[in-house]
Amino acid sequence: MRGFTRRLVAVAAAAAAVVAAAPTPAQAHGNDSYLKVAYFTQWGIYGRDFQLADVQQSGAAAKLTHINYAFGPVTAAGVCDSADPWADWQTSFSAENSVDGVADVAGQPIAGNLNQLAELKKKNPKLKALISLGGWTGSAYFSDAVLTDASRKKLVSSCIDLWIKGNLPGLPAGTAAGIFDGIDLDWEWPGSSGNTGNVIRPEDKQNFTLLLAEFRAQLDKLARANRTKYELTAFVPAAPAKIDAGFEVSKIFKYLDFATVQGYDFHGTWEPVTNQQSALRVPAGAPDNPDFSVENTINAWVAGGAPKRKLILGVPYYGQGWTGVTGTGNGLFQPAAGPAPGAFAAGTEDYKRLKQLPAQGYTVHRDLRNGHAWLFDGTTFWTYDDPAVLLQKSLYIRVKGLGGAMMWSLDGDDEKASLTKAIAAGLQ
Q1: What are phi and psi of 336, to 5 degrees?
Q2: Which segments constitute the GH18 domain (predicted)?
Q3: Cis before residue 290, ω within 30 degrees of 0?
Q4: Model pTM above 0.85
Q5: Which domain range does residue 251 map to?
Q6: Is the bond preceding residue 163 a cis peptide, omega within 30 degrees?
Q7: Is residue 214 part of a domain?
């Protein structure tokens, strides 16, 4: 027992050194056997002031195999659309905020985030870009859109036309062709509750498989014509009940290149007691039985028939926080008054801000055996992943035989891309 603990302590202590020794951007992509998939949020360019230029300049882009652009909604009419054309292809970027360091000019074929994605791919030729469809607030009408063969064909055709063929409204046909290398489905969730107002049907489970089959057929047809390959991926849930309700696990991986698995939001401030949000294993003393953990989630997918190498473990670049914590000890599993204040939403905070809290009187606590960390100052509690935890999760990915890691989302990392570099170092 003591030897095991000492080894884990050494792993955690070495994380910072491993990150520091990670290859520079110019040396990157030497080994892409493990996938490193990260989300870039469309709206991050506003209040968060996080640009694709930051992804390049921090060195994060050079560490990734895929970048998922979030999100493109499915409308009530059963077609794909842009949630924000201004951000996607209309707004201009200054030289400072452009990936290539050159300001956008009037009259260029395309601007916005999509043009910046194209520039990012030029700088990082092995990087693939996927358009993520749905998301928490964009999944309301999936169930309606996939109800019949005709409606599925209509939806898939519209998504491919808009995002893969690049036929954007108001621009010449094909202007955005070649920017996206595939489709990422973020239907949250087939057959079970997600955001308030989502349409849900028992048939969603079978229709999700049929939707994948239709995407695969239409993407492959276009790929043959263009002599290329288009990827199809999906974001899938942690909860065994949601897996059972919405996914024919033994069938869907016939169509998917890989699936990114929710490895976070296991607990949060919708509950009155502090807890872990992303632990590898259920911690000792956890109040819930059964409980959520990375291991329990991965085991559920594998037991259902998912190929391990097609499972990409999701990790959070943010924390869940409670304040008004009472009780004794280190703050874990204690009653709390409510959500802790956050920069953009109560109860959540980016890693780049949480990493500053130890200098403000917070103590870092680690459960090395069960793979999670938290911050506590006697009143406020934050569960989060830091480079040491992510290195441990990278080792878990390797030992378990999984396909790689997914990060939500890049804007939560610090300016040195410490979390991304920790994952890349662990998955070399």
Answers
A1: -140, 155
A2: 34-428
A3: yes
A4: yes
A5: 2-318+390-426
A6: no
A7: yes
Structural contact between residues 31 and 428, judged by C-beta atoms closer than 8 angstroms: yes
Q: What is the mean pLDDT of residues 9-28?
A: 42
In a domain, 343, yes or no: no
What's the token pair of residue 415?
A: 């300016």
Residue 377 belongs to some domain of the structure: no
For β-strands 258-261 and 311-316, DSSP reports them as parallel
- The structure tokens 């109040």 sit at 287
SS3 state at 261: strand
**71 preceded by cis ω (within 30°)?**
yes
Residue 330 has pLDDT above 60, yes or no: yes
**Dihedral sign, Cα of residue 99, residue 105, residue 106, residue 109:** negative
Q: Which residue has the tokens 């259920």?
A: 282
Encode pLDDT of 202-219 as tens digits: 999 999 999 999 999 999
Mean of pLDDT values over 342-362: 98
Catalytic, out of 96, 119, 188, 231: 188
And the tokens for 346?
């109560």
Instruction: Report the alpha-carbon distance of residue 394 to residue 97 in Å, rounded.
Output: 31
Alpha-carbon gap, residue 133 to 108, rounded angstroms: 27
Q: Is residue 236 part of a domain?
A: yes
The residue type found at 41 is T
* CATH code for position 144: 3.20.20.80
Residue 5: the pLDDT is 41
Residues 6+ apart with CB under 8 A from 307: 253
Distance CA 348, CA 128 (A): 29
Strands 35-41 and 404-408: parallel
> Strands 318-323, 348-350: parallel, antiparallel or unpaired by DSSP?
antiparallel
Helices (H), 107-259: 112-123, 142-145, 149-159, 204-226, 240-246, 249-252
SS (H, E, C) 15-34: HHHHHHCCCCHHHCCCCCCC
What distance in Å separates the CA atoms of residue 40 and residue 42, rounded to the nearest whole number? 7
Number of domains in the chain: 1
Residue closest to 141 by CA, chosen among 72, 89, 92, 222: 72
Predicted confidence (pLDDT) at residue 279 exceeds the cutoff of 90? yes
Q: Kindly report, residue by residue over 381-417, the tens digit of the pLDDT.
A: 999 999 999 999 999 999 999 999 999 999 999 999 9
pLDDT in tens, 35-91: 999 999 999 999 999 999 999 999 999 999 999 999 999 999 999 999 999 999 999
CA distance 304 to 321: 33
Active site residue 188: yes
Q: Which amino acid makes up residue 7?
A: R
